[in-house]
């Protein structure tokens, strides 16, 4: 839970998490909660949905879904934050159940748990995220990470080649290993880069399984 003058910046700084709310659909999720509002962002890497809810929306929805429960907005937001946080951290949360209805234009995430000893229900009503939001939260960060990773791989390959040259110089000048098990094969840059690119392709293919069946 945070207070912030710019919720969009706070959301941008939140990490993505891969979450399975209901089989077989797995979604990328990030969320930001304050004492008076929340923003939820979800994507299957083909579509993106989001909801931004303020105090008025939260109060009205709570009255509609939880007629026996009267709780301050801050308590509702704290409850929602506590229910979602374990999933975003890759942990199980047996105190809550989720179900998901989605299409290309909308997504409803149903939540069922308890608050103040009473049944607690919540629906996140998410609409299609604008292209600018998809670019800001997904495309641009992924491109930046991809370029950064490519540079690091090139630097690593260059460093390993230099290390091989250094080791060879030691050998030519009579240096020997005290332990034979420490001996390594010369680094093969072309083979290394080919293996790296193959693994990246395999990861890309595995991400296709996140897409919901038509």
TrEMBL record:
One Pfam match: XLF_CC
Annotated XLF-like coiled-coil region domain residues: 130-178
Gene Ontology annotations for the cellular component aspect, listed alphabetically: DNA ligase IV complex
InterPro entries: NHEJ_factor, XLF-like_CC, XLF-like_N, XRCC4-like_N_sf
Any GO BP annotation: double-strand break repair via nonhomologous end joining
CDD domains on file: HD_XLF_N
GO molecular function per UniProt: DNA end binding
Subcellular location: Nucleus
Coiled coil: none
Domain (XLF-like N-terminal) ranges: 15-126
Keyword annotations: DNA damage, DNA repair, DNA-binding, Nucleus
Family: Belongs to the XRCC4-XLF family. XLF subfamily.
Protein name: Non-homologous end-joining factor 1
Origin species: Micrurus spixii (Amazon coral snake)
Phylogenetic classification of the source organism: Eukaryota, Metazoa, Chordata, Craniata, Vertebrata
